[in-house]
Predict the 3D structure of the following.
Amino acid sequence: MTLFIVFGALALGAAVAMVFQRNAVHAALLLVLNLLAVAVLFLSLGAEFLFASQIIVYAGAIVVLFLFVIMLLGVDRSEVVLEHTPFQRRQIALGAVSALVLIGAAAPVLGSKTLTAKLPAIPKTFGSAQSIGTVLFQTYLLPFELTGLLLLVATIGILMLAKKKPR
Amino acid sequence: MTETHDNPPLEGHPHAWNEAVIEAEAAAAVAPRRLPRALAAAAAVLLVAIVVGIVLHRREATVGMYVWLSMLLFAVGAFGVLIRRNALVLFMCIELMLNAANIALVAFARGTGNVEAHAVVLFVMIVAAAEVAVGLAIIVSIFRRRGSANVDDLTTLKW
């Protein structure tokens, strides 16, 4: 519980700060903080393998890619997030309403027994690389191979997009 | 800055708009000085969270709490996508939403004792990585062509 409250608050605070951060580099660093806090939450839920891959894939690779592009483009200048124009005010009202709708849509489920029951005891191998590997290479073998294909297509697509076009 | 002060623009001149932009940017540049206050607020929140956590440490966290957190993070991400205009920050908000969904999946996996959801989370991570790579490549090529990463500037398809 302590772990959940502390790192949940950290994740939520970092997310809110990220949304209202003017500077794109600071926003990326707050995203790292949020992702690391979520990684600890994964650990508290018994997902050791996902804890490691969250740090490596998200906090490592993806955010480094973000920072690299921010600095490549030179858009690390501050921007004005909240201008007090009618359009922006309408946008914020719309954003708040849709956030509330998202929460309200899930509210009926929250009272169900699965959600309020005590967490069951789990076997020691729960969430280890071995158990996930078993699931991945037996039940989900075809989707796993397809993600490999997806990554290949993405790599080729990036090379095509990033290539300088001959004039 | 000095150039604009040497020959100030006339009233109603097109440069008047530029002046407003420069003032807004100057205000934004001053803003980082407020960072210590933000840090203090963050530290206070964290301290309160630690105290609450210690007080409640005997109670066990349920799946529902994690689902609540996941919903709140998702809502914050969706809010960010709607109000921000920097394409890069938009992408970060999308990552936030994907990650919030992952929390719910892992929480349900723990609640039901089923590891299959972990495989699904792994797939979400892989797809997010591919999506970010392609999206950032698109942003870079748009920036090369238009010199801006602001989504409000991309109005070619509007009529």
User: Anything to note?
Assistant: Residues 1-10 of chain B have pLDDT under 50 and may be disordered. Residues 1-59 of chain B form one domain. Chain B has two domains: 1-59, 62-159. The two ends of chain B are 36 Å apart (CA to CA).
